[in-house]
Amino acid sequence: MYHGAAVPGFPQHPHRGFETVTVVRRGYVDHADSLGATARYGGGDVQWLTTGSGIQHSEMFPLIHDDADNTLELFQIWLNLPPASKMVPAYFRMLWSEEIPTVSPAPGVSIDLIAGQLGAHIPPAAPPDSWASHRDTRLAIWLIRIAPGSVFDVPADASGVNRVLHFFDGVEAEVDGTRFDVGTGIHVVPDREVRIRNDAAPAEFLLLQGRPIDAPVFQLGPFVMNTPDELQQAFEDYRATGFGGWPWSRPDPVHARSDGRFALHADGRVEHRAMQRV
Hints:
This protein is mainly β.
């Protein structure tokens, strides 16, 4: 499942034509890429990577703790790019945990807003070339926690939007009067309120929604394009250019255990955040 000489993870590999939204709930990820950018993030941080015209990157899972388990829990969500953004320059944006709003719309309910507004609460801006950057796409990524005995009414949104609730932690819960076991993905009607009732153990849901891009999708391995010819061109370009090559001395770079959370961007900009024990 994982590779790497020193720690688990995914060494140097390419992407083109879509975005990865990596939500790290526990543990850390060490990022390095073909643009010369690098980062360490985790404990609720999100990396939003627009792969655009092409990038190589590595995602390694550093073993920070020598006195406890190094638990890793993350979601990596692949978001398609619209045709006009397929070949934009690659880059990433960090959404640090301190910047992601957590709201409590009902007793016993808390929601992390990674994308998509809830009432007056607005999440950090998505990258400008993302489908999520256009408000009329109605794209949302919410992490919803519901305590036992609590109820949350997911507000209605626009018609024509795809909306899915992924029930990923807990035992069982009721959605619009139907009981579901944990590990279920539930497609719900977007343009009316949906009630989630949790009577058992603490429950967590990942809500994903967005308006369809309405363009052909051709995907093979790490490339997501609009036509077979574009897909073939992606492989040819990668073989010819390596999407900028690989500036690191090894395919699986790992930062020092003592390094904190940070991001060094391709333009030289540096962000630092305090380390958390997660």
